[in-house]
Amino acid sequence: MPGGDGPGAGSTLLVLHGTGGDENDLLPLARELAPGANLLSPRGPVLEHGMPRFFRRLGVGVFDLEDLARRTEELGRFARSAAARYGFDPARLIALGYSNGANIGASLLLTDGTALGGAVLLRPMLPFEAERLPDLAGKGVLIAAGRRDPYASPASVAALAERLRAAGAEVELAWSDGAHALEPQELESARAWLARHC
Q: Which site among 129, 131, 172, 185 is 20 to 30 Å from 165 CA-CA?
């Protein structure tokens, strides 16, 4: 988990891959976006047709909410354990997640107000409706979404942004006209956001 100087120095990114990725998948992107940050990159513990994920789903866009709740709690415990083991400040832990990884990052924010210091969520959707919202005051979140994304509808993305704002988070929403693949301007937005928040 080595870090360095430059943007992100002193912060730790919790790097959360998408379906079919693994713990190495987003490391080059994370190093590019925040070259000074420490990187903590777990592999999703669930397999779907041999493809790692962070939680089960019943169909495209239909999540197994019991499994999501359990895996979200496990991820929170993992993050706290890693902070103790590696000696980083949990308040400076920022999730960087794509697709399935962004969704469990969003779930962790909506479930546990102390697990993360903020998040960059690439192609997320609202993972579930929280009965009560945590206190996310002072935490920043960047959401990068595509208006033509077949997996995360604009309405679900907007709902996620609204719930996070209602919990007190400072949410920036970066839209592109793309689909599920990331667009260059969104990566620039993520780089600029991380430079301000790391």
A: 185
